[in-house]
Structures are given as C-alpha cells and as structure tokens.
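Objective 1b. Sequence-to-structure analysis of Bifunctional protein FolD.
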Amino acid sequence: MPNQKLILDGSRVAQEIKNNLLERVKRLTEKGVTPCLATILVGDDPASATYVRMKGNACNRLGIDSRRISLDKDTSTEELISVTQQLNEDPGVHGILLQHPVPSQIDERAAFESIRKDKDVDGVTMLGFAQNAFGLASYPSCTPAAIIAILDYYQIPIEGKHAIVVGRSPILGKPVSLMLLNRNATVTICHSKTVNLDKIVNSGDIVVAAVGKPKFIQGNWIREGAVVLDAGYNAGNVGDVDYEACLEKAGAITPVPAGVGPVTIAMLLKHTVDSAKAGNNLNLM
C-alpha cells in the first residue's frame, strides 16, 4: 500500500450500490414485481428496533416494499417459526430478515433454519453457509459481503495476501474467512483463546475486526501499510478497532460509523432485489 492513508468510505460504496439498485427496482416494478423485504423483530430491544427501522427506511428510499413484523418478547420458538413459514409461502415476499439477537427462550438456530433458502437474503442458514464455503452462495451473509465489496470498490488486492480475521461467529468471522479464502488469500482466524494475538495480527496484510469488543484491536498490533476493516459496532459509535491508533499504521482503514455498516445494509437490499428477479424468472440486469 502507498504511504498515503486511504479512508475506506463505506457510505460512498453503499451509495453506488444503491444507485444501481434504483434502476433495477424500476425495471422490476415495470414488470409488475415490487421487491419486498420482511423483517421480523422479537421483543423491544432499542438497538434492534433502530436497526430494523434503518433497514425499512433504506428500502423505502429505493422503492422496495418493507414489511415489518413485530412480535412480543415472550414469543416462543414455535410461534416465531410459524410466522416465518407464512412469509416463506407468501409470493409477494422476496427476502426474510430475522433481527438478531432474539430473546433467550428462542432457539435462534432453529428460527434461522426455518427461513426458506431462496428468501435467506441475510445468509443465516446452514445451507447458505455451506454454499458460501463452496463459493456458490446466492446471498452470502451481508456483513462479509460488504467487506468484500469495499475491498473490490477500492481495488485492494486480495489474492496472495495474508488476511487475519479476529472473530469466528457463523454470520461474520467464519463466512468472511471463507470468502477471502475463495479469493485466494491465506487466512488466519483468531478468537478469544488465541495466544499471542497481537503478533498474529501484526503479520496481516488485511485485518478484519469482528470480535464485538470496543477498541479491541490496538494500533501497535497493525503492521505498516495493512488494510484494516472494522466490522464492529459498539455503544457510542465505536468499532472494534482503536481507530486513531490504528490509523497511524494502516495503509487503508474503515471508519465507524460510515464504514462497513452502510454497505451491509446496501448488500441486504441488493440480495432482496436479486431474489425478486430470480423468483420471477426475469431476465433483467
């Protein structure tokens, strides 16, 4: 990477994706198909409610229908799956998003698995994960897809690079590791039990922070010129990276906010539009 710092502007990347979607949504609507994303929110967690509202507003700005289902915090797994099954069978719904985390009494994995594959636009099912591993996923998990989209937008090489992923969740750390591997990076996955984490991170050309702890990645962990992608979002608009400290060493870095987050939402909208096109067998761009 050049010595000049490159701020990876996620808002800019997201806007280009959404500009492209505007034309695609218009073409679908002219064919009598309005893409529709159904979001399910269980309980009254303020942060989750905010995320769902943001996604709904983003849909509305593009002409995508947003169908919001709010369920009581005492909803059972069986009741939630029943709602999901109704949405699976509704031809007017093209994407289903279950906002997580869900209340503790719900079997989250069972709830995710109840989403039909062709409507799993958030890439949360085990089948979707497996397809992603083989490079065949129609709708990979949205945050990993956003990370790859940012790298591609800024033409940052992936092939042959050493990528360090800090975090191993099934919808972020693991799938982004597989996506980087499929793009011919050499990938090291780290986690809370990793010994000498700072030294391992320092070996990375690309560092993905997905650990869910504010300012966890320290500036002196980053090698000179590394690309840092912060997929964390914590209270107070703080990411998983100590931004100011890492900026001193990084060649390129995503801020928080306005980094990975906006692109994650844009990828969710793209997947919904893709699903609407595929579900209606339309030969559109």
